[in-house]
Amino acid sequence: MTFQYPAVFQKTEDGKYTAYFPDLAMCFAKGNTIDECINDAIAECREWIQTELLDTLDLPPVSSIDDILLKKNEHIRNIAVIVRLYEGWDE
Length: 91
Prior knowledge:
Distance between the termini: 17 Å
Shape: globular
Radius of gyration: 14 Å
Strand order of the largest sheet: 3-2-1-4
Structural class: alpha+beta
Number of helices: 1
Oligomer: single chain
Low-confidence stretches: none
Helix content: 10-25%
CATH architecture: 2-Layer Sandwich
CATH class: Alpha Beta
Order of helices and strands: EEEHE
Number of strands: 4
């Protein structure tokens, strides 16, 4: 199953990148480059969703990109992940 959530990216003062997901509590990513940060965001998002599905089977609604207020030097991008749901996962 494919899930898609917006992530907010920012370049730090030391030239690295960080990201957070407004809809996914405590889900963060980082990287030395924007590509590394995007890859980390994909991995962190997938892990967050898998954990949440195992714990509660309830995911938060997805915010519209237009509703997310960005600070200076922030940009937003949708992150899509594929999570395989195995037989019996919802039992």
